[in-house]
Amino acid sequence: MLGLVDSHCHLDAAEFDVDRDDVVAAARQVGVTGIVIPAVDRANFDAVLELCRLHDDCFPALGIHPMYVDHSTPADLAVLEQVLADQRPIAVGEIGLDFFVEGFDAARQEFFFVEQLKLARQFDLPVLLHIRRAQDDILKHLRRIKVRGGIAHAFNGSRQQAEAFIDLGFKLGFGGTMTWPRALRVRELAATLPLESIVLETDAPDIPPEWLGREGRNSPDQLPKIAQVLADLRGKTLAEIVDATTKNVLAVLPKMHQLCTSPQVSL
């Protein structure tokens, strides 16, 4: 019996306030036995940690998201350093660069990204990367500030960029985008990159799969169907995809090894 790991899910988001416990239970019922919950801001560090204390299947990552740096301060980085020391999460994240939204402050984003890479290096933790229109900029900083690796969440770059992340010790996150027939580049990468470089995610409540529609609320119980899409693209069985992607998550996020001994639900 095998379990799936959702390597990126914002279960603390307000969209889940009315039924969060039910969402976790529904995920476990379909075989999702691990959910990685990345923080996005100092203000939700405690919420993420508390959620992971309440649910054995949930694992925290702590960081400041690039779209939240406009109201973040260096003092928040000091808080993050202290919390990393005290709580020992499984990763630093969600961190990165987002040059997609109009009016972004590239210099401010890069400052917070670099400082958080340094913290990841200090605590020998992997990182969960947010990347939009900034693949090469992210790679530039990763080559300069060596970290343990991590996950390039919602990967949407080129094959050359994918190979560069893999060479730096990163796995690539694939989720709802891969399920849309018109997402030709993402689907081609999902079908042909080395399987050992791929992890699965939902980014719930965002990036809904095709069957939920553009406005649907995504949730971790959708991961088995997302995994089936990857299996179909690669000509593999669902069991093979579950086994491989779970091993990949455990390899890149070693603090999740306890998942291997948790009760598992057959798909």
Description:
- By secondary structure, the protein is of the alpha/beta class.
- It is built from 9 helices and 8 strands.
- The chain has helices spanning 20-29, 45-54, 74-87, 106-123, 135-144, 159-167, 184-192, 223-234, 238-252, and strands spanning 4-6, 32-38, 58-62, 91-98, 127-132, 150-152, 170-174, 198-200.
- The protein has an 8-stranded parallel beta sheet with strand order 1-2-3-4-5-6-7-8.
- Helix 8 (223-234) crosses helix 9.
Question: Could you give a quick summary of the protein structure above?
Answer:
This protein is α/β, with parallel strands linked by helices. It has a single domain, classed as Metal-dependent hydrolases (TIM Barrel).
Radius of gyration: 17 Å
Strand adjacency order, main sheet:
1-2-3-4-5-6-7-8
Biggest sheet details = 8 strands, parallel
CATH topology-level name = TIM Barrel
Number of helices: 9
By CATH, the superfamily comes out as Metal-dependent hydrolases
State the end-to-end CA separation. Answer: 8 Å
Oligomer: single chain
What key attributes describe this structure?
267 residues; alpha/beta; TIM Barrel; eight-stranded parallel beta sheet; 8 strands; 40% helix; disordered C terminus
Furnish the topology, listing elements before pairings.
Blueprint: E1 4-6, H1 20-29, E2 32-38, H2 45-54, E3 58-62, H3 74-87, E4 91-98, H4 106-123, E5 127-132, H5 135-144, E6 150-152, H6 159-167, E7 170-174, H7 184-192, E8 198-200, H8 223-234, H9 238-252
Parallel strand pairs: 1-2, 2-3, 3-4, 4-5, 5-6, 6-7, 7-8
Helix pairs in contact: 3-4, 8-9
